Amino acid sequence: MNSALSASATELVVLLDETANPVGTAPKSEVHHGTTPLHLAFSCYVFDRRGRLLVTRRALNKRTWPGVWTNSCCGHPSPEEDMEQAVHRRVGQELGIRLEDLRVRLADFRYRAVDVTGTVENEVCPVYTAVTTEEVRPDPAEIADTTWTEWADFVSLAHRTPWAISPWAAEQIPLLEPELGGNGVVGEPRAR
Questions:
Q1: Is 73 a known active-site residue?
Q2: C-alpha dihedral sign at 174, 133, 58, 15
Q3: Of 42, 45, 54, 110, which is least surrounded by CB within 10 A?
Q4: What are the tens digits of pLDDT across the range 52-90?
């Protein structure tokens, strides 16, 4: 048996109550369905030093939103894993890169969305930004394609055609836009 498959079969996600307090765990392989319980996740937007955003297309075998373009990386922290460690771990697994300047941008982001198969995403999902100087080496089991794009172009896409990207990215981008402005993540966050 493929070790990546056996590892994902035993991966646990943290279940949450309605006030976002941990109440248990469940196997990741069993948590996403038509009545997905609220659970803990994260999203990360990875930029290069020029301020371009790494956008990924989800692998066609993904359980939720297969083949859909989205932010750089999403994932779930393991029980008792520090969230920033989880972001570094998952970005390394999916994209084969290391991150610099990891920052939480939307600490309390939460969303619920239903894909065309009826599978529900129901997550408290802090949103991070980071920078990399490394060449992306995506895991084909997770990512079908990648591209670097200008932040302003992805913002425009989210505003003009939100149905063309993942629902979480479509909701996150308008919330990130005031902080990141038109230049992406390079430099300090803008004053509010």
A1: no
A2: negative
A3: 110
A4: 999 999 999 998 899 999 999 999 999 999 999 999 999
Per-residue tokens: 62: 């993904």
What is the pairing mode between strands 73-75 and 42-47? antiparallel
List the beta bridge partners of residue 121: 113
Beta pairing partners, 22: 16
- Told to judge if 123 belongs to the known catalytic residues of this protein, a careful annotator would answer yes
**Tokens in use for 148?**
């670097």
Q: What is the mean pLDDT of residues 116-136?
A: 96
* pLDDT for the residue numbered 187: 47
Q: Which of 123, 125, 142, 171 is catalytic?
A: 123
**Of 74, 94, 142, 171, which residue is the catalytic one?**
74
The closest alpha carbon to 151, from 126, 172, 136, 123, belongs to 172
Cα(83)–Cα(102) distance, rounded to whole angstroms?
A: 11
Q: Measured between alpha carbons, how far is 71 from 121 in angstroms, rounded to an integer?
A: 16
pTM for the predicted model, two decimal places: 0.89
Q: What percent of the chain has pLDDT over 70?
A: 90
44: Cβ–Cβ under 8 A, 6 or more apart, which residues?
71, 72, 73, 74, 87, 90, 91, 99, 102, 127, 128, 129, 130
